[in-house]
Structures are given as structure tokens and as C-alpha cells.
Amino acid sequence: MEEVLAIRVAITDCLEVKGKNESARMILFGGTCDCPVFKGNVLPGGVDTQKDTADKETLLSARYILEGQDSAGNKCRIFVENNGQVGKDGQIKAVPHIITDSKELSYLEEANLSSTVEGIEGGVLVHIFLV
Q: pTM higher than 0.85 for the full model?
């Protein structure tokens, strides 16, 4: 696997509701990306929606837009939708879907991608890989 993007997510707020059998969180965030193929920032409105099910699974769906420059120096935006779940071992595994207006990065729209998430101070580091 080849890493294409690493996004430093900085959590800004967390909204939560706990029901009788399930709970849900909306984690609001900003962040940055400084990689060989793209450099930029997460635009306002990034959110990771998480749901803890009655079966003790945690499902997640993060959606955000990055704005910056691709490797050719062109201004561009990248929309990321990253859906997955937290495994029994606590590891987050997800499958990202990307939409971009960058010609340089357009191959990511049809690529087979996977992602992992690691905790860092104040947030997480999202690694997106070509599979």
C-alpha cells in the first residue's frame, strides 16, 4: 500500500446524545495536510459522525473538504467521505471516497483506497492509502 494523503485533524467540538440502547456523536474538526501530492487545510464544516450500536459496534462517517494546492501548484479542493468502523481491537479502519477538481489528483476518484486513523494530541492523523 502507498500512502497518498496524511491529514492532521484537530478536534474543535463534540456533540453527543445517548439514547436507551445507542449513542451518537458529531465530532467537529479542522486540520491540515502537508504531503507530496497535496498541501492545504480542512475547510470549516468538517464532521465525523459516530454511532455506537446496540451490538456494541461503533460506525463512523467523516466528511470534509480540503483546500490547497496539488503537486503541480494548482489550487484545488478535495472532498473526502470516509466510512468505516472501530474494530474490537480499537483500531479504526475505513474506506475513503474522494472527489476533486484537481487534474493531478483525479485518479483518486476511481482508485481503490483504504485508511487508518491514529490518535495524536488534540485529534487524529488520518492516513489514506492506495491499495
A: yes
3-state DSSP percent of the chain in helix, strand and coil, to 5:
5, 70, 25
- Supply the CATH number for residue 27's domain: 2.40.160.20
Q: Count structural domains, the chain.
A: 1
Residue 55 has pLDDT above 90, yes or no: no
Q: What is the pLDDT of residue 78?
A: 98
Give me the chain's average pLDDT, please: 96
Distance, in Å, from the CA atom of 21 to the CA atom of 16, rounded to the nearest integer, reads 14
Domain that holds residue 80: 2-130
